[in-house]
Design brief:
The complex is a heterodimer. Chain A is mainly alpha-helical. Chain A has 9 helices and no strands. Chain A has 2 domains: 110 residues, RNA polymerase sigma factor, region 2, helix turn helix motif (Rna Polymerase Sigma Factor, Chain: A, Orthogonal Bundle); 59 residues, Arc Repressor Mutant, subunit A (Orthogonal Bundle), CATH 1.10.10. Chain A is 74% helix and 0% strand. The chains are: A mainly alpha, B mainly alpha.
Chain lengths: 184, 89
């Protein structure tokens, strides 16, 4: 989980461009789940293809970071790059299996959902460590109450209520940043 | 960090679904992506040495995998390709 939440995407990109390796690590941390999810959920790439695309996305991002016109636009830039490389990969595979086709509407819907998911994931970074950890373990890592209880040294009977309290904090965090959604 | 994406509602179920939508990428993939700057720097050192030393350049062109391994860079196909491109420039 990110420790440099004080940096905006634009600040992070600027530091990467200056050759700050720690900033690069943070950029990879911040967007690795997003890129991974686009590969395997939006385009349903098999794991070995997804790994190739994932590495290629970050390699190209590193190489072409200086071409980014608006540093704050790193997220859509990475999404577009990932999308293009996934399509290339599927087209290459389609030469061998011509039935393969990309349902662009479905892909767009999935990427929109992943965008929203990343916004929520980023908000996690502003919660206390214990909340961040328990929510990530339960929802994103699919860990059971027993596994979470052992890892965090908590009685498993208290985990459900902690998750609920932490979700309420997350909700407050998000509503504070986007009051319109809170009203919907 | 921007929070500008459209959010529908923040009920618990929806939040849970969105958190569930972003599982971590495999650790090894993330590690490899983090090593890109170091890998590129090592590649650059090989290229600079090859530019200054014809004999070394011949050895690298003949066996780029060995040059990469000597520089502690994993000799994956894409890395070899990048090295070849840089040497051709």
């Amino acid at each position: 989980m990110s420790m440099r939440v004080e940096l905006t995407d634009a600040q992070l990109v600027a530091r990467c461009r200056e050759g700050d390796h720690e900033a690069w690590n943070e950029l990879v941390e911040r967007f690795s789940r997003y890129v991974y999810a686009i590969c395997v959920q939006a385009f349903k790439l098999p794991e070995h293809d997804a790994e190739d695309v994932f590495q290629e996305v970050f390699a190209r991002a590193y190489e072409h970071l200086h071409k980014l016109r608006d540093d704050e636009a790193i997220r859509p830039w990475l999404a577009q790059l990932t999308r293009r490389l996934c399509i290339d990969r599927l087209r290459a595979a389609a030469h061998e299996q011509p039935d393969e086709d990309v349902e662009t509407t479905e892909v767009d819907d999935t990427i929109t959902r992943l965008d929203e998911a990343l916004t929520v994931h980023e908000a996690l970074a502003f919660l206390p460590d214990n909340c961040r950890d328990i929510l990530d373990r339960f929802f994103a890592r699919d860990e059971s109450y027993r596994v979470i209880g052992e890892a965090l040294e908590l009685p498993s009977g208290t985990i459900a209520s902690r998750i609920s309290r932490c979700l309420a904090k997350l909700r407050l965090e998000l509503e504070g940043r986007n009051p319109e959604a809170a009203a919907s | 960090m921007s929070f500008g994406s459209p959010m529908s509602a923040y009920d618990e179920q929806h939040l849970g679904e969105l958190l569930n939508a972003l599982p971590p990428a495999p650790d090894a993939w993330v590690r490899a992506a983090k090593e890109i700057p170091q890998t590129r720097e090592r590649l650059q050192r090989i290229v600079e040495r090859a530019e200054a030393d014809d004999e070394y350049r011949r050895r690298v062109v003949a066996n780029p995998e060995a040059a990469l391994e000597a520089a502690e860079v994993a000799a994956q196909a894409d890395t070899v390709e990048i090295l070849r491109r840089k040497l051709d420039k």
